[in-house]
Every structure is written in C-alpha cells, then in structure tokens.
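Re: nicotinamide-adenine-dinucleotide structure - here you go.
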Amino acid sequence: MSPDHTSLAGKVAIVTGSGRGLGLAYALELARQGASIVVNDVDEEATSAAIEQIARAGGNAVAVVAPVGPTANADALVAAALESFGRLDILVTNAGVLRDTVLWKMTDDDFDTVIGVHLRGTFTCVRAAATHFRENGVPGRIICIGSPTGQRGNFGQTNYAAAKSGIVGMVRTWALELKRAGIAVNAVIPVAATAMTATVPYFAAAVEADAAGEPMPDFYRHDLGFGTADDVAGLVAYLASDAAEISGQAIGIGGDRVQLWSHPEPVVTGYREGGWSYEALADELPTLLEGGLQSVGESFPPLPEALQRPRPSA
Ligand SMILES: NC(=O)c1ccc[n+]([C@@H]2O[C@H](COP(=O)([O-])OP(=O)(O)OC[C@H]3O[C@@H](n4cnc5c(N)ncnc54)[C@H](O)[C@@H]3O)[C@@H](O)[C@H]2O)c1
C-alpha cells in the first residue's frame, strides 16, 4: 500500500448514490487515493455539492443525475466515465432507499421501489461495467454494498432484506463468472451514522456526538462497530485498489471494527438410505437439528444508561 495516497492514481470510479452519506465518503476517499469519480445521485443539489467538495479536496469528478435501476442509466454511467476520463476501473454500487414496514403492511410499491434501486440497480450497473471490463481487458474492481439486514434479517425490512441478501448472492455468482477476466467483486457490509440511521433511537447518542464534532463513544465504535461514514470509506478504496486480490467476499466494517462474514453452508448433515419420508423426518429431524438451529436477526447489547436518550415523540 502506498503511503502517499496514490494507490488509485489514473483510475476512474463510478459511485452510485454518492451525493451524500456513505457514497459521498467513498467518492471522497477514492478521489483522495487519486481516482477520478463519476458521482451519481437522484438529488441534483447534493450531486453538485459533492462535485464541489471533491474538487475542493483536489479531485476530479463529473455528475450523472439519474436513478439507478434502468439499464439505460447504467449504460449512461459507464459512458460518462469513458467520455469524461477515457476509462473505467472501479464501480461501487451504493445507491439506496428504505421503505420500512412489517410484511403485512408492505405495499407492492414499497417492495418494488427498494428492489428496483438496490437489487436491479446493482444488477444493471454491474452488468454494464463488467461488460466494459471484459471487452477491454480491464481487471476491474466491483464493490457492492450489502447490509447486516441482508445477512441476518431484520424486523420491518422484508424488501431491504431481499435486496441486500440478493446483492451478496449476486456477488458470489459474479466472483465466479468474472474470475477468468481478472475482475474482483466483493460486498461491503457497512454500518455508519448517516441519514438512514440518524433516526434510530439506539444510535441517538452516537449521532449527537458526531454532529457536535466529537468522537463517538467507545461503546458504539468498538462494541457495536458503529462509527462515521469515513470509517467505512478506507475499505472501499482498499478493495478498489490493485493491492486487494480477494474476490467473492463479504466484509463488514464500522467504527473501529472490520469483519469477514461467512457465506451460508450446511451446518448439520444427515443421511438415510432410501431418502427422507415425512414419517422419518418427524421421527429423526428434531434430534438431528438439535444444537444446530440458527438464530435470526442481529442482537444488540443493552444500551449503557449514560447513552440512553428519550425517544422522539411521534
Ligand atoms: N448507514 C448505514 O448504517 C448502512 C448500513 C447498511 C447498509 N447501508 C447501505 O449503504 C448505502 C448508502 O446508505 P446511506 O446510509 O449513505 O444512505 P443515504 O440515504 O444517506 O444515501 C443514499 C443515497 O442514495 C441516493 N439514491 C437513492 N435512490 C437512488 C437511485 N435510484 N439512484 C441513484 N441514487 C439514489 C440518495 O439520494 C442518497 O444520496 C445504501 O445502499 C444502504 O442500504 C447503510
């Protein structure tokens, strides 16, 4: 790793949803490492502000204001990289929206919107970038953003869990399909204080400290792996660099913590000659599965009293 922040010099990156939040932090860090950036967002004002911020920090960036999801917009992102900077090396699929509600209240539109931005947006953008990489012999780097919800499930997030676990499933598949072309595809599972997490009461004391320009309490940074967007950005830049040769991995990061997530694999295996009838299962499955049953959802430690904040009134 070069200590002089030139690990991505001469490279070009697309970061979707980079007008604010984590995407902006990724764009800034990729630029700091020397890459030119295609900033994409649906929020025109945020996009212009992001371009200015990157320029002020000495970087190069162009804007594409368009929603990810449709194929034409994915193609437009690749075209913008080629037209503005003459090449494309890195894609970060980060754009996201939430439409949280429990299953029985979730509308078709809630479901389709989240799937359209996260899952379809990731698919169309990666297809466009990977096609360019393969056709031009570019050993590209693709970083797709997952979520703890996709890994573990979460109350009120049917649509988001489907999209985010789907993204990690696609990453595993793409790591296989793109290996021969020398293209690496990894998932980052971030946790950070952004507009998405700012309203969660459990994180209120951390968000409050961050807004006041103070370091977040250790409980958040260390025990929960919850920090700022900048804490996540280094991993995205690292995975975008030639230094990272890994592919098909899901790496969690937040605050002071970095983690490698496992991929699902069988944890209990049983055999029965002639196969497993209903009767045989009723007889033997409970004992076979005992001790191997999996937990669902994330479990958080109780919030220390000093960090508890009154819930905002509805
Ligand atoms: N904040 C966290 O702790 C956390 C945890 C896990 C995963 N994530 C994921 O990280 C990514 C960024 O989240 P964030 O917390 O920075 O959220 P954010 O809401 O601050 O930023 C998301 C950005 O995406 C943009 N966007 C929305 N729809 C778009 C579309 N169709 N096309 C282009 N841009 C679009 C938004 O305008 C916004 O600027 C998301 O994929 C999110 O699911 C965040």
